[in-house]
Design goal:
Radius of gyration of chain A: 19 Å
Distance between the termini of chain A: 23 Å
Structural class of chain A: alpha/beta
Strand order of the largest sheet of chain A: 2-7-6-5-3-4
Oligomer: homodimer
Number of helices of chain A: 9
CATH topology of the largest domain in chain A: Cytidine Deaminase, domain 2
Number of strands of chain A: 15
CATH superfamily of the largest domain in chain A: AICAR transformylase, duplication domain
């Protein structure tokens, strides 16, 4: 694996006392830089873009806001502006200073809509000239993304680990509780595609194709469920949830059901799968099996 | 940057439907593999080892348990066994199936001490022959680490970002509240060295050189403080806390003080630093400034 140093100076590394460099040729064009891009800006942009791009599998316009390489809000709407504002509003507090990626052409109206929002970078595959002018004035950095294949990886013990990054087959199998109709399954699909980009252990709750509570980066699934439901509050009622891996015990599922969540999709593979499925059946929770685990660290 | 493919087959990538490879020469020897090492095992091992190694800056034996590339427990004791058991007990639930790194020679007594604990990998710079035999029987994988320079980095948009990973100067400046004595400052130092390895936004609470509550992977600092204090419960009383970056508002600090935390160290740099410092003074919280931010994603 030979990677040439790419000619892009980063403001600094993960922290200001650390340096960082880019190797290889990144699939983006910097349409406006303003303040120099940082190491974290680019990684946040990638985290947001991959989810927005994956959401092309569903109908509608998708927007994703990222903070610290994990989404804090994502939404699909039939209107571009609604999609952007809904993704930001999903967690207004965390969106402040975040990075926005959309899977549609970012136009003048979009730029006007975020005029009063503080976002560090906007990421899309296409921008209109008017949008570029407006964003540049606001000092928002603009990244235009070309086609590429996402990877995962990290340095470890002086070497590099590099892995594939892909969604498993998006086929959900009914395992317990009431069956969902096509529209409801679409909600579950949305939750699962977004949770693929949330740091593990991850539990994501969504409603109206918008995230309402994201439990991220936890060492236990129960704890991720606790955070997601606490953040969702009343919005968890009749909502949809996705887990990035199996429930090792029924406890996480019970937290979701108690908060009022209606349907859950999760990969299987726990030695207690049967116990977990029985718990879902007993609680009247619609429970679906995903074809694979989607950890992201 | 030329990295040759290293001859080590990984069980699979971040998830079982994904492949992964190692490039370059990792600074570890696999003393016992048993079940093939996975991509996640190695990254968890690195996450644990770097913290344990950094803790050599303090006196005593240090142990760190990692789950999902973030510590769930860390402890320094004057006795090896106490150090290991204390790190595991710091979050017994999350330690299950975790990875243990220690910064001392792992001997027979250490191996006996974890006989009934389920740990996937044990990481150290040195193991006695007896310890290797005992761990091998238990099917624990054993990684022996040689000297190397840790890095951070990730693939992004088809390229690779690579950065330095280092602690800032470990000089804490008193900014508010009662001053701490040498022993207390050592507690704060412990919290800060461990929080360097916790995923951002991170707040870590410790007591008796052992973590009691870790708020990790959050998009807001207030939320990280909330999680850390909820997990610490009563143990937050008279405890020490470290934040991996500045408090943008006094709210996170207020959550810590309300839970009974005695002293906090945090990098500065918020436009509201003065407001945050005044809040600490008002609450009688010992507040110290660290020389730099220690985000890890």
């Amino acid at each position: 694996m030979y990677l040439e140093k790419f000619d892009l100076d980063l403001r600094y590394g993960e922290n200001s006392h650390e340096k960082a460099e880019v190797f290889g040729k990144p699939a983006f064009g910097i349409l406006h830089e303003g303040k120099q891009l940082s190491y974290n800006n680019i990684l946040d942009a990638e985290a947001a873009y991959v989810i927005a791009n994956n959401l092309k599998k569903l109908k509608g316009y998708a927007s994703v806001v990222v903070k610290h390489q994990t989404p804090c809000g994502a939404s699909i709407k039939n209107d571009k502006i609604e999609s952007i504002l809904s993704a930001i509003a999903a967690d207004e507090e965390s969106s402040f200073g975040g990075i926005l990626a959309v899977n549609f052409e970012f136009d003048e109206e979009c730029a006007m809509a975020i005029k009063k929002k503080y976002l560090e970078v906007v990421v899309a595959e296409s921008f209109t000239q008017k949008a570029i002018e407006l964003l540049s004035k606001k000092k928002v950095r603009i990244l235009k993304i070309n086609d590429y294949e996402p990877k995962v990886g990290k340095p470890a013990f002086g070497a590099f680990l590099v892995g594939e990054r892909k969604l498993p087959d998006l086929k959900f199998t009914h395992v317990a509780g009431p069956q969902l109709d096509v529209e409801e399954l679409n909600e579950l699909l949305f939750a699962f595609i977004v949770v693929e980009g949330v740091k593990s252990n991850a539990i994501l709750i969504s409603k109206d194709l918008t995230t309402v509570g994201i439990g991220t980066g936890q060492p236990s699934r129960k704890r991720a469920a606790w955070i997601a439901t606490e953040l969702a509050g009343e919005k968890a009622k009749n909502a949809y949830a996705a887990s990035d891996a199996f429930f090792p015990f029924p406890d996480g599922l019970e937290i979701l059901a108690k908060a009022g969540v209606k349907a859950v999709v999760s990969p299987m593979g726990s030695i207690r799968d049967e116990e977990v499925i029985n718990a879902a059946e007993k609680m009247g929770l619609s429970f679906y099996k995903a074809e694979g685990r989607v950890f992201r660290h």
